[in-house]
Amino acid sequence: MECFQLLDAVAVPLAAPDIDTDQILPARFMQKLRSDGFGQYLFHDLRHNGDGTKSPGFVLDEPAYRGARIAVAERNFGCGSSREQAVYALYDHGMRAVIAPSFGDIFFTNCFQNGMLPVVLPAALVGALLEQLRRQPGCHVVVDLAAQIVIGPDGTASGFVVDPFRKRLLLDGVDELDFTLGHGDRIAEFEKTHKIW
Amino acid sequence: MTVPLTLLDKIWRRHAIVERDDGQTLLYIDRQYMGDDLLPDVFGALTERGVKMRRPDRAFGTPDHYVPTTRRGGEPIGDPERRRMLETLMGNAAASGFEVFPLGDRRQGIVHVVGPEQGLSRPGMTIVCADSHTSTHGALGALALGIGSSETSHVLATQTLWQIKPRTMRVVVDGTCGSGVCAKDIIMALIAVIGVAGAVGHAVEFAGGTIRALSIEGRMTICNMVIEAGARAGLVAPDDTTFAYLKGRPYAPRGADWTAAVAFWRALGSDPAAVFDREIVLDAGDIAPMVTWGTTPEDACAITGAVPDPAAAPDAEGRARIAKSLSYMGLVPGMPLGGITIDRAFIGSCTNGRIEDLRAAARVVAGRRAVVPAMIVPGSGLVRAQAEAEGLDRVFTEAGFEWREPGCSMCIAVNGDTVQAGERCASSTNRNFVGRQGVGARTHLMSPAMVAAAAVTGRLTDVRTLLRAG
């Protein structure tokens, strides 16, 4: 897994609440192969017409946001289905961090598993950030995981809380599975006495 | 004095292997389910590391998302990508040695219908599946978590998950459901009250007289859809209803083991003095048959209500959101919900594809005719067989419904069963998201009986008016 330490990048505003994983990655693309990349399917139905032709106007396709590596969204981002392909789509498109007031639980966990940092900031701060991104399209936001701060385009620094365990794994680029495989003896010991009724 | 514990506490304690100071717990997983929606990378992560699946004896699989629901002659699935999804599951099962109920097996079906039906999901267990609706199994008193595909690889390799203990919420439902009101209406009413993020980070225990009076199937509908309020899990304490449901199921304990198991299960319920982080109380007597009008499950109200006016929303964000939903749904503020014409009806899914759901629908359909294309997709082959034994298939086919083979079908629309763009579908499923049932599809969620009422009238209809007329 790629490590995540500090990101200084263009941020794109995804200004809507409850953006579900069916919007991020429509279900009919779930069966694609990761090796082919999921970036092309990110928000597919918002970026294309019914006949498959490109539909102009979706924020992600505006020239100012090309190369965005940070998404700023409203509450409950990534709710709905557990499909990890939603994270693949964001990641393969280039995103490495998503900032929102709250997230769908499974999506939130899936982010960490793929080297992507979900950052929870209070709604008022996210609102202010979205406003700045709208005023200055293409401006940068800094996400510093080690220091646990987000620095907005206006220089305002906001602290955020992150689970220390996930933070360590992300900073080091260590996969959770590799970490747990080191606990094999503890698991085997547990299994000796654990009864399943 | 001992600290009173919740059902969640009791399950958590028995499965904690490592508890870190930072709050992370390495939790042992008793049961893992797999559908046909896992990409090759999921087992690939094990191959890459040279590790084998740790406990194939604790895992079960059955193809559900990508299977055709038309008559099955054993011919391969035409679409190469869908076929590959199925073959991936079957190949992994053969290579790693876990049991699978394949296409053509009477036990095949939606994994959340099949697991409980086989007695594989039991009280006190920790259960995972790479599907958000895994919460369904909580109806039996298990901690059942929907997980992503990386976590699935993690469980395959280690039989564990790193988890932070969820906060607890208790939803107490008391009172008697009126005629035509069922479990689906209760959970839809709850989501309408607390919102689609109302239970984020929480394990929700359902309690109260109304829940106790529900069958396990009804409880499954409720736990299934609690994920639509953002919950980590839904649970119902095991009781005599649970034990009666499990007894004699193929994988349930037998003989002396059964007696010991029941004694253990009986002690799992939350202690009377247990404290929950949040409590919500609902009166079942206040709940009417529900329908959704918008594009999230919280956009729901009683069938006797009307399409909301965005102007009445408390803030600009709410006004914009409702206006956008109504535009997608092709609805006008103030329209009565009862009477909105539909193009199609669908009964099935892990929410409402069980035998009681089909019985409830058949009671409405009997002696009437569907006036729009309508289909029934049983949740499993055994549900289908049971319905046929009861003659329900004839009730449906004589009324012009299609009687299909089991699978997820039009709930997620990845097997080829889709709602066309612009079509309005009355659906017994769980998500009315934009495009969920097909690009441009408009979904109204409701109970199976309400879908049946919509199918035979061609419009959203208060099922109680048909039950009275019936």
Description:
The complex is a heterodimer of chains A (197) and B (470). By secondary structure, chain A is α/β, with parallel strands linked by helices. A 7-stranded mixed beta sheet of chain A has the order 4-3-2-1-5-6-7. Chain A has a domain at 10-141: Alpha-Beta Barrel (Aconitase, domain 4). Chain A has helices spanning 21-24, 44-47, 85-93, 105-112, 123-135, 164-172, 176-181, 184-193; strands spanning 6-14, 70-73, 97-100, 117-120, 140-144, 149-151, 157-159. Chain B has 17 helices and 19 strands. Chain B has a 5-stranded parallel beta sheet with strand order 5-4-3-6-7, with helices on one face. In chain B, strands 17-16-15-18-19 form a 5-stranded parallel beta sheet. In chain B, a hairpin with a 7-residue loop joins strand 13 and strand 14 (300-302). Chain B is an alpha/beta fold. The mean pLDDT of chain B is 97. At the A-B interface, helix 4, helix 7 and helix 8 of A face strand 2, helix 2, helix 3, helix 5 and strand 8 of B.
